[in-house]
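Subject: SAS-6_N domain-containing protein

B.,
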Amino acid sequence: MNSKPVGYESSKAIFSFLDPNMRLAVSLRNPSNRTAERAVPLKINELTMDNHKIVVDGTTYECAIYQMNCCENKPPFRVSGRNELNGRWTCDVDDFGIPDYITQVDGRLKSILDVQKQRHKPLLQIQLETELEIRDFEATIEADESYYLFRLNPEFAIYDLEAKMEADGSNLLFELECRRSHDRLFNEEELSLLKNEEHLQSAISYMKKRIDLMEKLLLPFENQSKNIRPKFEIHVTKHQGDSTNVLERVNYTGNLHKAVNSLREFMFSKRLHAVVVTKLNISQDCPIPMPRQLKMNITELNLGENVTTELVEPIINASSSPLEKLHIFVNNDTPQKMDLEFIRTAKVLNIYKNQGTVLPLILNLVNQKVNIQLSHRSFLTDEEFVVLIRTYRTEENISQTFHFIVDQFEEAITEFGFISIPTENLTVIIITYEYIVHQGYGIRMRVLPWE
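Prediction pasted inline below.
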């Protein structure tokens, strides 16, 4: 049967009926269709840009580094991303496989205080700076190998944290205790959580996995001592539901971020129309730029804790409607430029502030509705809040609403219904107290016309 290639206009018509992930799949398999695909407006319900991955309507596209010849008779081992044992984040590795969180600090691991500053909570504090520490770590592995069968006897128990939990939940608690107690044997007061033989075997498998991960953490240092330079590859994978497919494999040349940037460029650059996104989440900590020439019409924008507003300003289509919701962090570690157009025009502005003074930020906001999540309640009890009220008594801010949310608040505030404060501009400041489910306690301040 003879077949004819689909023409340009016909291809555009077909792409207009395909969901975003199907469009990307067709474009990836047949590069000749990319021009037609990029000529049709792309509409995405929810898009997430994370450090090394992109999530399009629940389907994840990820770049990761794999050591191809890590261990004999074992499959390729992933070396980038979050380590399951110590919680550290790796972007790149050197020729031996030593992660950048070590090489970028002259071969020394950061102190526990540095780790806490990065808001990481390592489950296993592994010190690998010296040969003595490496030998100690090897001894830990040998200890695990020798006693994990012994200590998983049902006669032993870890802390019975949840005596009322069902048996199936006991394994999860066991795994939690394994992480907490990596440096000792479980004592005789521990482990009634493994209720049956099935749980016992599952726990043994879990310990074998941990031992394997420990061995692989040591492997780069063994490579260095023996001057072995293993082969590394970058795998671009697609995770959709329960299936995972490798879309592309390339040799690793020392820069994973370059591969992530190329993936973003392939998906979003050179489009004839702005990408329509209902909800855009950007949660990256890595310094990866947004795709060139990308423009988006966004309904809701959610910026992660370390994401600056200037990073996303170039991709927001100036001719699109104002954002319905905008979520941003404003802290000393994340200075934000707040006078940008997309911030001023956002219909609902949600600010998360963990430190620093609040008043200068508030006084410059012109949004009609502002929700401010505070990590402390001092602002609502000190002079700054009084200054804010006095300012709004003399300035014209009709219909503007501020909502301050804290984890806890003095119970005495609940004894009052609301406070009404007349202003000099025929308006009234209404201050009310309320409890917000899953968030905490809130003070709502509204400026309304006097009636």
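The radius of gyration is 27 Å.

T.
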